[in-house]
Amino acid sequence: MRTRLPRRTFLKGVGTVIALPVLEAMMPASASAAAKKPPLRMLFMSVPNGVHMQAWRPGEEGPLGELPATLEPLTGVKDYMNVLTGLTQHHARPNGDGPGDHARSAAAFLTGCQPRKTNGADIKVGISVDQFAAQNNPARTRFPSLELGLERGAQAGNCDSGYSCAYSSSISWASETTPVAKEVDPRLVFDRLFGNGDSAEETEARIKRERYRKSILDFVMEDAKRLQAQLGVKDQQKLDEYLTGVREIEKRIELASKANIQGVAGGATRPSGIPSDYAEHAKLMQDMLFLAFRGDLTRISTFMWANEGSNRPYRQIGISDGHHDLSHHQGDAAKHEKLKQINRFHIQNLAYFAEKLKNTPEGEGTMLDNCMIVYGSGISDGNRHNHDDLPVLLLGRGGGTIQTGRHLVYPQNTPMNNLFLSMLDRMNIECQSLGDSQGRLEKLT
Question: Which one of 3.40.720, 1.25.40, 1.20.272, 3.40.210 gives the CATH number of domain 37-184+274-426?
Fold first, then answer.
């Protein structure tokens, strides 16, 4: 007789808790199809400074054919995505508030609300869709949401024409006055995902790992061996694959820490888990997000590829100019070409994550079938600072509720928040309106 495991089974050790992926042993044979259905996840990813739209937008509405140059790296998951044209965040526009389009575009990206123009403590915008979902999600996961990013931000100061840095650094807002800080250090994310919540035990475990060069898996090995003995061959392979993924990430964080020893006060040193290579940083963070989704640690996440208005250079692809400077291209062909390379570089990294989801079987399909991933920017053309006709991708089939592989064109000024209401519906989260929404987004099914 097959051993029946609870859906939320963990491997535990001192300072350590490792959630497991969904295994066959967790699915009772008599369960209904609905009960066996994999979890549905939502992820919101933002890139700064808009994109070069001419290399982004497919030629016509309808089934996706050959993808434009910027989106071409997504060819392998083309049948799992839609390109959405015509969506707008009206409250990223000045609407009488003057300059500050970058700050407004980040603040309005997931809220659909006009941010108060201030660089003081009286910041105000609105709750974001991810946090509304996290606060109202009937599914209880260990982390209601996970906020990740690749560039440190600030919660105070003047970052854009009189707007607080909190606006440029955050797309996630727990309330109209409370931005949710993102985590950018892979080591801290790893410790958070696999710690047991007891700070003293977590510290003890971390010291032991560093002193004796142990893996986090060493602390749960006894539990893991006992569990393996109860599993069938297929589940044993799945568990081994999952734990191998945890260990590989741990090793990469260790390598990044050794390569990034930072001086601190008093002449001491402290290792940082942030890789100097942007692409490796992105992969590490996405790999941990993948594990968080697969272990059902969370079903809701945000991911900022950089702060809005970021002037990061991309030397790894031969571009030493700052991204924000290039976005003010004034029609210069050379700047256009560099922008296209930066946009494509971001998409290549997105494709890495999407392929990983696509190649992981889950239920009757793949993990990508059970995701809704919004990727885009609150600015369309960085030179014009316009907030209509935004570059927006929707990847994943929403548990079979979204028809994919299409370019969908919407009337000008269609609120982007209409998309968010449609996504909340699919998460079984009731919401009548959010920000400037005017209804549900049509044509998704």
Answer: 3.40.720
